[in-house]
Amino acid sequence: MTQNNAGRRTTAGSVLVAATVAMGLIAGTFYIFACAVMPALARSDDRVYVEVMQNIDDVIQNPVFFLSFIGALILAGVSAWQLRSSERLRWWVWAALVAYALAFLFTVMVNIPLNTDLVDAGDPARIADPAAVREEFEDPWVAWNIVRGVLSTIALGCLARALVLYGRTARRTPDLLPSAAGSA
């Protein structure tokens, strides 16, 4: 094994670890919304509900969140490319990429437009009918959040499985690990 191939293998492993961590952060975010944030908000009156969701939409748009939200997709894609020649690993990473790409797509196509509509409703103190605004938002947002939570959790499980297999392969046969360039 050459030093260059060892470096590529280390890079592939590092990218797989980073993808798994980013995916875990995102799956955890969707999970906590499904299990705690939205059920707690469901107990709130309509104006408070709208105000809090508008505030969440405002503060979640930050570099740290975007790093994991977009990073999970990019890192899973890079990892899928790097491990494409590995029979044992590629299907797990590709399955993770597809599952999270769907969650990402649903976020962009459904949840973000719902958030935008909620923000466009204006100041909760001035909304004439906050119950109507909430009714348009709450059920579809919660349902699609559960879908993206399930998909990102599946993606996390697939990446975790790939990581375990990568570690086993590295211990047994370091020369058989795929390089970042895709050679076996």
Low-confidence stretches: 179-184
Distance between the termini: 11 Å
Look at the helices and sheets and give the structural class: mainly alpha
* SSE arrangement, N to C: HHHHH
**Total count of domains:** 1
Largest sheet: none
Provide the residue-averaged pLDDT: 91
Proportion of helical residues: over 70%
- Beta percentage is under 5%
Q: Work out the oligomeric state of the chains in this entry.
A: single chain
Radius of gyration of CA atoms, rounded to a whole number: 20 Å
How many strands appear in the DSSP assignment?
0
Number of helices: 5
Shape: elongated
Protein name: DUF1772 domain-containing protein
Transmembrane segments: 12-40, 60-79, 91-114, 146-166
Keywords: Membrane, Transmembrane, Transmembrane helix
Structure characteristics:
184 residues, mainly alpha, 5 helices, 81% helix, disordered C terminus, Anthrone_oxy, DUF1772 domain-containing protein, membrane, transmembrane helix
Explain what this protein looks like in three dimensions.
The protein is mainly α and 184 residues long. The protein has one domain (3-175). It has helices at residues 3-42, 46-60, 63-82, 90-120, 130-172. Helix 1 crosses helix 3 (63-82) and helix 4 (90-120) packs antiparallel against helix 5. The chain is elongated and about 65 Å long. The model is unreliable at 179-184 (pLDDT under 50).
